[in-house]
Specification:
The complex is a heterodimer of chains A (98) and B (352). Chain A is of the alpha+beta class. Chain A has three helices and five strands; from the N terminus they run ββββαααβ. In chain A, strand 2 and strand 3 form a beta hairpin. In chain B, 38% of the residues lie in helices and 12% in strands. In chain B, strands 6-5-4-3-2-1-7-8-9 form a nine-stranded mixed sheet. The N and C termini of chain B lie far apart (57 Å). The chains are: A alpha+beta (98), B alpha/beta (352).
Chain lengths: 98, 352
């Protein structure tokens, strides 16, 4: 599966809330509080296990002043970073495009 | 893109939740049923009313999540007397809510500890009223409760669940304060305590008979007040309170209060919207209190050492704007230790 076909999903181990566009994420095991910036928060919000990274990057280009290539690169790096921190997983297999 | 945990962004968000009346933290008393009979308990169940069903609770959790709640503290009564407790807590976790569980621990066995582990709570806080079985069991009026609470702490700690030993220090257990603290440290739990016994919700002051007096408080608090020193003991001068701002409390019947101790309802979530409740007269009243409204407190020399609780003042005297005698006493003791105006107690342990 290509990296951009992976479908990020919030780890069920986290607790999270979005306040005024900013995501606050708690990892209870480590008792850490993470506050994401606006773009990171939007990626977090979109990580529902149904959209793949390509879908997320497309949405970012519509909502922020950013090219698809940059959005994709950011989304890949960011979701990978959160997955490493056990805050995010990748659901199932890549979504087939019609 | 930043993913780092920094205090400032978080503090900014907490302030935002206060400014916008977002119920960031909800203290939810799921049930008033309890298997212990502690005489200091403030709860007065209303037997004619039905406690919320799972369906009601899950609907309310949906609303809270949508409105901005991050933390829910589930307490009782005893939360584990509810047969559907794990359905409720599991639902909350599925919604991404961070949980703190307040329990006496006596109903936690291996299987229940496994279920709690699955919830991944922020912490489980277990009430302990002594370092000796006889002291604790006498206070809970339940023989064997000390051993069962200790077993719970061990089972949870074995599973690396963050636990807190939570105690209320009163005349019958003050002598065991330091032992309790040492015990909590030894088993890897946090230790938190309070010295203020609050009146019962029906106005009875009976639970307060066992409150420590000034001398007992002085002996109890002397070591840590000295350790913290002047700065560590002084607070802001505004006596502010977050009740009804980013904090609210829900009763087992769905009544909503500005905080857990201030039982003047702003409405009921089975028939009123959260927004209506947050803008009800009682919520508005408690939010609008400022130091200048507190006729006996403004200008008081103890203000900087006082953690005045409006709910406690109201419970003690029926006056939301008056002083709380218990808070005045405590602030006075802290000030006298900080000022070094009294001799140190003969022993750091109270009543030994």
């Amino acid at each position: 599966m290509k990296t951009e076909e992976r479908m990020p999903i919030k780890s069920p181990d986290t607790a999270h809330q979005i306040i005024d566009g900013e995501a606050v994420i708690i990892t209870p095991g480590q008792m850490m509080v993470h506050v994401l910036n606006t773009v990171g928060s939007r990626i977090w919000d979109l990580a529902d296990g149904e959209k793949n990274i390509h879908d997320i990057a497309k949405i970012l280009t519509e909502e922020f002043d950013v090219s698809y290539e940059t959005a994709l690169e950011d989304a890949v790096e960011f979701t990978g970073d959160l997955a490493e921190k056990k805050m995010m997983d990748f659901a199932g297999k890549g979504k087939k495009k019609g | 893109m930043s993913t780092s945990a920094k205090y400032d962004p978080y503090a900014r968000i907490v302030k935002k939740t206060m400014d916008r009346l977002i119920p960031f933290t909800v203290h939810w008393e799921l049930t008033y049923h309890c298997n212990l009979q502690c005489p200091h308990c403030y709860i007065v169940p209303q037997h004619s009313r039905e406690e919320l069903s799972f369906d009601h609770i899950s609907d309310i959790l949906d609303i809270l999540k949508e409105t901005g709640t991050l933390y829910v503290i589930f307490s009782g009564g005893e939360i584990l007397t509810r047969k559907d407790f794990f359905d409720i807590a599991g639902y909350a976790r599925k919604k991404g809510v961070a949980l703190r569980l307040l329990t006496n621990g006596t109903l936690i066995d291996e299987q229940v500890a496994d279920q709690i582990e699955q919830l991944n709570p922020l912490s489980v806080e277990i009430s302990l009223y002594g370092s000796r079985p006889a002291t604790h069991d006498r206070i809970t009026a339940s023989p064997g409760s000390f051993e069962r609470s200790l077993r719970a702490l061990k089972l949870l700690n074995d599973r690396s669940i963050r636990t807190t030993v939570k105690s209320l220090i009163m005349k019958p257990n003050a002598a065991e304060f330091q032992e309790m603290r040492k015990f909590a440290r030894k088993i890897g739990s946090q230790f938190i305590y309070d010295t203020i016994v609050i009146p019962r919700l029906d106005g009875s002051m009976a639970p307060c008979r066992n409150r420590l007096d000034g001398d007992e408080l002085y002996r109890l608090l002397y070591p840590e007040v000295r350790e913290k020193g002047e700065n560590g003991n002084s607070r802001q001068d505004d006596l502010s309170c977050t009740a009804g701002l980013n904090v609210l409390s829900i009763s087992p019947y769905g009544d909503v209060y500005p905080c857990m101790a201030f039982k003047e309802s702003g409405g009921n979530l089975t028939k009123d919207s959260l927004c209506e409740i947050q803008h009800s007269p009682i919520f508005f009243k408690i939010r609008s209190i400022t130091l200048s409204d507190l006729r006996d407190c403004k200008g008081c020399e103890l203000v900087r050492y006082c953690n005045r609780c409006p709910a406690l003042a109201w419970l003690e005297t029926g006056d939301l704007l008056g002083p709380s005698h218990a808070d005045c006493l405590l602030a006075g003791v802290i000030k006298s230790v900080v000022d070094n105006k009294r001799k140190p107690p003969v022993t750091a342990d109270c009543c030994r």
